[in-house]
Design a protein that fits this description.
The chain is of the alpha+beta class and 510 residues long. It folds into four domains: 3-130, 2-Layer Sandwich (Beta-Lactamase), CATH 3.30.450; 153-258, PAS domain (Beta-Lactamase), CATH 3.30.450.20; 262-347, Helix Hairpins (Orthogonal Bundle), CATH 1.10.287.130; 355-507, Heat Shock Protein 90 (2-Layer Sandwich). Helix content is 43%, strand content 23%. The strands form four sheets. A five-stranded antiparallel beta sheet has the order 2-1-5-4-3. Helix 10 runs antiparallel to helix 11. The longest helix has 54 residues, at 260-313. The structure holds adenosine-5'-diphosphate. Adenosine-5'-diphosphate (ADP) is lined by residues 404, 408-409, 412, 438, 440-441, 443, 447, 451, 456-459, 462-467, 491.
Length: 510
Amino acid sequence: MSRSDDVAEVAGQKDEDVRPFLAAIASSSNDAIIGKDRRGKITYWNAAAERLFGYPASEIIGQSVSRIIPPDRATEEMSILDRVGSGEYLAHFETKRVTKDGRIIPVSLTLSPILGPDGAVIGISDIARDLSETQRLAEAFQQREALLRSILDSNPDGFIVIGESGIIKIFSAAAERMFGYAAAEVVGRNVSMLMPEPYSAAHDGYMQRYRDTGDRRIIGIGRVVAGLRKDGTTFPMDLQIGEATAPGERRFTGFVRDLTERENRDRRLAELQSELMHVARLSELGQMASALAHEVNQPLTAVANYLRGMRRLLNDDSPPLLRQGIEKVAEQTERARAIVQSLRSLVKKEERPRSAEDLEALVLETAALVLAGMSRRVALIQDIPADAQAVFIDRVQVQQVLLNLMRNGVEAMEGRPLQRLTVRARRVGERVEIAVADTGSGLSDEVQARLFQPFVTTKADGLGVGLSICRTIVESHGSQLTVTSVPEQGTTFLFDVPAAPGLGAQAEPL
Ligand code: ADP
């Protein structure tokens, strides 16, 4: 059978005129075209096959196709001959071939049966495309992609690529850490899932507008936006968006930097600074307090002496009210001396004795002191559950804190329609959290910023040292005094103290 006969039969045409055309096409094809019979004997070999495998047609026609098959692919070829021999068509089958000089090359084969006039398979046509270049390109591409990936993945900034309609295409390792999603969970979904409302809902609109008008709101500029993690929490992030100008669909690249870290660092610095200032303040305060204690101690000692004298003058005929009054004055004088004493030991950083105390009784007593002589309009709400009652504290100091906070609260509510002072306690593990809340004026930003510094006051007769002393005392009990305030609605101060060992635990077994 001649070569042109084969070609004509492949085309299924008997027209003699077609043959030279087909022969020309086959011989000028860039793909190697090989004809073989059902047993694998080569019957046709075009110019591209000569170039690819290195055998001239004259040398290989009539030889077995196994000449170009690597030994480890022999069984594969047998099964191909079998399948195509029985009429099957195989397209783009990737395998390896061996050249005359022994090089192994990757090829893509398309195999079809050649049918005789009666429809029986008389041979097989084998179109082989050299994949060396494609494979080299693919490998080079893969290498570049791996390099890019490793650069992106080792970058602490997250990297996200989205398509024109906002669909996520690439999600780097850092982005996974930042948002708490695995790449597989987000790739293919809309990037708006990474933003909280209302940005999420508006995002498609932004993208649409950019596509329609080219109006750049954020591209190439970058700004701080909110990110939404998988767990529903949000975080501030710095977002830089670029636009990839490769052919095909537009791609937007985004670098995201989690600012929580930076904010934490800034906050930590501020804390350290304020701790330092606090120490400085304490020594200032300390100097003032010891001077004050010294000054106040003298008149107090005198008052105590006079009282002793007056008590001696009292007899059975003295009016009971006078007797009671003098007793009260004596009690309060004792209290004043104890406070002065505690101020001094605070300054000296003396370890003051701690004891188990009943918080409810302490609050009641303090409320009595605060509300004495105040307008009756103040409603006191005391909410101290059984398991929060026993506390292990320096009684005088903690009472001082409660007194300051409650008095400030009452003063802030003066003249207001709703005057409610709430003291709430709550057991939290080994500690008791205490909140003092009022329905007063709230704090101005200016006051709040410097609230715990000494000598900050808005009161005509205020000293402005109450809260800074409270803070010192709360810290010496291992806590922080914090405040939340809503203007025109009220202010809440919060701190905690150790629970008394053994007592509260009964109410809340661990
Ligand atoms: P003083 O009461 O002597 O002014 P403080 O240190 O106790 O000093 O308080 C400082 C300032 O903080 C007060 O003057 C007041 O402006 C503000 N403040 C404290 N507590 C409250 C509160 N509960 N509501 C509103 N403002 C408050």
